[in-house]
């Protein structure tokens, strides 16, 4: 890769610090020969400078920490990147130690120049202190070679000077090699950063997906709860309504059997004509009022046994059918108000779990009572009046069964939608949170796609630089 393409790629992936460092490294490597001088103290560095005095190069001081000091800082390691070669120096009198070795080994991942030497300096001091300086110098060099990292050749200051005297001829080749090494370092760092960014975006996307799945699970649970509640309510209504129908037929059979005796007790036909319809209405209305109270209590007891929620059970009594007869003079009959006991103007409504369902208003009914009223006014004898009354009572039973079963069928159709209605309500209540989650998911997906794209580009560029 060209220098500019590396610069542009680092800028594009958002590594502006790496891009700045790359420009500075390229600038430094295009200048005179730069040699990183690594020493653990200033005295050792001065000895090295004296040994290298007069050479056409720039020495870049990079202090190595001793055993009690902190590790080399970021600024010092960055200075190494713009050097063509590296020279580590250690004195004969106190040669290479474990701390220096560890720091030299730690430099390899930091793109320290591959052209390097470890030089022993301060031979003059050794000659003044030792009776056998050559022998001791050889021993120190041997120990230094044993301690030094493998890729740091050990020599004395004279050999190091000779190596650096020949280095300017290799400056351009060394600069190209160092640029490739620094480019790989910066691209690896950028790639690692983008991989971490992609991993974070992937984790965040998974969290958002989990939250959205929890929302979907809550909707499904609302649907299931609505279906369970509908099934329980419908079952209780159907069971208790069947019992109501059986009891109603028994009661009407009893009324029918009692009619001859009741009519025979009144001799005056005009009085019978006026009172029989009202008397039958009063008797049936009283029985229905009492029986519907029982119906309500039985439905609520059934729902309590199956563990229906308090809210669902509280609304169940709104399902009580209105079987009270209308006035005889009205064309609308006693069954004209089958549905719920909650009236809204001329209609009725059925409430369950906060949802309003249209009431079931019977289109027919009351015909038996209307017919009885007309027949009573024209009856010529008690027998005719009795026949009209019996016919009205029997029609009442047929109408009641037909209309109540029709009501159950329509209630069942409405309750079939209860689960979806509950899910819709929950979705409406959680619309804002769900919208935010959807926006977050879209954002995380975009970030992940961008991070994956940058990772791919950096990986390709790194592969091309190898």
Give a structural overview.
With 466 residues, this protein is of the alpha/beta class. It folds into two domains: 3-195, Rossmann fold (3-Layer(aba) Sandwich); 213-429, no CATH class. Helices cover 67% and strands 9% of the residues. It has 15 helices and eight strands. It has helices spanning 3-12, 16-29, 42-51, 74-81, 98-106, 123-129, 133-147, 157-165, 171-264, 269-305, 310-316, 367-378, 382-415, 418-429, 431-465, and strands at residues 34-39, 58-63, 85-91, 116-121, 154-156, 342-344, 347-352, 355-358. The protein has a five-stranded parallel sheet with strand order 2-1-3-4-5. It has a three-stranded antiparallel sheet with strand order 6-7-8. α10 (269-305) runs antiparallel to α12 and α12 (367-378) packs antiparallel against α13. The longest helix is centred in the middle third of the chain and has 94 residues, at 171-264. Mean pLDDT is 76; it is low at 324-368.
